[in-house]
């Protein structure tokens, strides 16, 4: 048995494989396995705590998606560029992620789970030498499941 399309599922029953599509007549565990694909949102910062204008619009899209998927599991991960030492950047990434997580909580949307973390300068979108300002690396990534 091989699955060929996104959203397909299969289970073994009475000696044979059955394909699934997530309809109501399938077992609950099959429908759960067909949960929507995770969504990723990237929000960029001017400084350690100020979202860019474009990221303000992305934040509005994030809220809309959360309302549609509530209750949702959300991961908020802060990132930085390489300006400053690694420990400092780890803390800045965590501050960014924490600030956005508090903003999400204050929105009133029901969250099943909220995870906040920092990758600091360890996971850049654009690789740079140390002590380099790079706006693409000053971000928070939000994953919605």
Give a topology summary.
Layout: E1 9-13, E2 16-20, H1 28-33, E3 39-44, H2 53-69, E4 72-79, H3 86-106, E5 111-120, E6 139-144
Parallel strand pairs: 4-5
Antiparallel strand pairs: 1-2, 3-6, 4-6
Explained architecture:
The chain is an alpha+beta fold. The chain is built from 3 helices and 6 strands. It has helices spanning 28-33, 53-69, 86-106, and strands at 9-13, 16-20, 39-44, 72-79, 111-120, 139-144. The strands form 2 sheets. It has a 4-stranded mixed sheet with strand order 3-6-4-5. Strands 1-2 form a two-stranded antiparallel ribbon. It is globular and about 55 Å long. The model has no long low-confidence stretch (mean pLDDT 85).
Please outline what is shown here.
The chain is of the alpha+beta class and 145 residues long. It has helices spanning 28-33, 53-69, 86-106, and strands at 9-13, 16-20, 39-44, 72-79, 111-120, 139-144. The chain starts with 8 loop residues before the first strand and ends with a strand.
* Classification by helices and strands: alpha+beta
Q: Biggest β-sheet: count, sense, barrel?
A: 4 strands, mixed
Total of helices: 3
- Please estimate the helix content: 25-40%
Distance between the termini: 27 Å
């Amino acid at each position: 048995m091989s699955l060929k399309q996104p959203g397909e599922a299969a289970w073994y029953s009475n000696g044979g494989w059955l394909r699934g599509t997530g309809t109501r007549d399938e077992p609950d565990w099959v429908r759960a396995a067909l949960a929507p694909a995770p969504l990723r949102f990237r929000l960029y910062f001017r400084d350690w705590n100020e979202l860019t204008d474009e990221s303000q619009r992305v934040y509005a899209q994030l809220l809309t998606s959360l309302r549609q998927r509530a209750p949702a599991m959300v991961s908020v991960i802060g990132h930085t560029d390489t300006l400053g030492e690694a420990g400092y950047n780890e803390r800045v990434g965590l501050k960014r992620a924490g600030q956005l997580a508090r903003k999400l909580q204050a929105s009133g949307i029901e969250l099943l789970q909220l995870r906040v973390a920092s990758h600091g300068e360890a996971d850049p979108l654009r690789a740079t030498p140390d002590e380099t300002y790079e706006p693409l690396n000053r971000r928070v990534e939000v994953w919605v499941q």
